[in-house]
Amino acid sequence: MSNTIQSVRGFNDLLPGQIASWRHAEQVIASVLDRFGYREIRLPLLEKTELFARTIGEVTDIVEKEMYSFDDRNGESLSLRPEGTAGCVRACMQHGLLYNQQPRLWYQGPMFRHERPQKGRLRQFHQVGVEVFGLEGPDVDAELILMTRHMLDELGIDGVRLEINTLGTSEARTRYRDALVEYLAAREGELDEDSRRRLSRNPLRILDSKDASTRMVLEDAPRLEGFLDPPSAEHFAALRRLLDTAGIAYTVNPHLVRGLDYYGRTVFEWITDRLGAQGTVCAGGRYDALVEQLGGPSTPAVGFALGLERIVALLEEQAGDHPSPGPDIYLMVDHGARSGPGLVLADRIRRTLPGANVFMHCGGGSFKRQFKRADRSGARWALVLGEQEAMEGRVGIKDLRGGREQYTVAQADLIGELSKLFGG
Ligand code: ATP
Ligand code: MG
Predict the structure, then answer these.
(1) Can you give 128-182 as a three-state secondary structure string?
(2) What pLDDT score does 337 carry?
(3) pLDDT at 63
(4) Cα 120 to ligand 1 centroid, rounded to whole Å
(5) Residue 259 CA, distance from chain mean position
(6) Is the four-CA dihedral 113, 54, 90, 100 of positive or negative sign?
(7) What pLDDT was estimated at residue 397?
(8) Which helix (H) or strand (E) holds 67?
């Protein structure tokens, strides 16, 4: 065992037993997005490093120390995507999706960050991301929040609370930053090491610190609210009215900032206390300046990302594992010579009975052993094609979960018989 190769730390396998909950989450979320009229876009996992440096921000944790970057064979620096927004904006610009259109898009898939792996925090993790371009809001901001509420409801996830905040314009943030730095610098000794480092580089991120002493210091810190420009304040007030009308409860958290530089105005997070420190299951906000910053036309934008690992963890905690369903039918043949007819019969059932899940036994062996396998597979019915049945043009049916004796039907009548069994 000692020299077998293991997976890369923080890169998890999802084993067959876990797939049912993942598919359930993915399907519910995709179906909600469909019903809101959002359109899926599929984006590459690898982009030019420069794309992330220019969007997420040079002095953010992600770009400073979390990206999987490497020089490819042509000497160009590439990075595994740490998030999806930058690539989505890049694709929209590249394909002219931002002219005279207000696309509402979504994507899903793995993201990569070199963080310390722990429960709910991986190096390869999965997000569903949603991005809307060309709409200033606050109606669309409210729609995104309503949509996330709808997803959580349809997934049956409760106990997740909404926090919102506004970051104002970048001018407002600059004025606020100065005031915050002045306040924090005077109490630098009480800050944790990370926060001291951020003081000169990215002071707003200190608001997000989880360190107890730093949080104490922050209690009396100046608040962004006092520095807000009137249009941003009105945007935020309108958003709150819309959420009130929609009956969505929230708290305003003046310390809510996002770890990426491009956000302004609305930011929001859905948070649970049930996943320890990794409690944010969904986070998003407005990034009106980003498209222009990347050389595109001035385009307001807003989006969010859901962390699928955390969503699935909540589902599993609430409902236990979704058991992986076994096949409906386990088809067994006793002999190599009957493999051909068996394969054909199994596929005929799959083609004619919609939804029927037929597992073909391969590899031979006695019927006794095959029945054991069939039983372990979780199948409901076994079909038996042995020497006797083949000679008579019949097939045996055994209810693996009921008391009824094995019986046979003519192969020509099999589909009709199975339809009856499926119906009843
Ligand atoms: P956190 O504060 O938890 O590090 P973040 O601010 O870095 O989150 P975003 O970049 O906004 O997160 O990503 C949106 C969501 O993606 C998060 O709310 C979380 O659910 C999920 N997520 C982010 N990083 C990870 C990770 N390393 N492992 C698993 N899920 C993650
Ligand atoms: Mg993070």
Answers:
(1) EEEEEECCCCCHHHHHHHHHHHHHHHHHCCCCEEEEEEECCCHHHHHHHHHHHHH
(2) 77
(3) 81
(4) 9
(5) 18
(6) positive
(7) 96
(8) none
Taking residue 121's Cβ as centre, other Cβ atoms within 10 Å add up to: 18
* Per-residue pLDDT at 322: 55
d(CA 245, CA 143): 12
Cα 119 from Cα 13, distance rounded (Å): 15
Residue nearest to atom 5 of ligand 1 (CA): 259
* Angle separating helix axes 339-352 and 414-423, nearest 10 degrees: 50
**Sites in the chain below the pLDDT cut of 50:** none
Å from CA of 113 to ligand 1 middle: 10
pLDDT at 424: 58
Using most ligand atoms within 8 A of CB, pick from 66, 83, 127, 261 the residue to mutate for ligand 1. 127
Q: 335 C-alpha vs ligand 1 centroid, how far in Å?
A: 54
Distance 57 CA to ligand 2 centre (A): 14
pLDDT tens figures, 101-154: 999 999 999 999 999 999 999 999 999 999 999 999 899 999 999 999 999 999
**Which of 85, 118, 280 best tests ligand 1's pocket when mutated (most atoms within 8 Å of CB)?**
280
Q: Is the CB of 122 under 6 A from ligand 1?
A: yes
At residue 65, the pLDDT reads 87
Cα separation, 18 vs 324, whole angstroms: 8
Ligand 1 lined by 125 (C-beta under 6 Å): yes
Nearest ligand, measured from the Cα of 10: 1
Euclidean distance between CA atoms 373 and 129, whole angstroms: 41
Q: Is the CB of 232 under 6 A from ligand 1?
A: no
Q: Ligand 1 within 6 A of 165 CB?
A: no
Residue where the block lists tokens 């979320």? 29
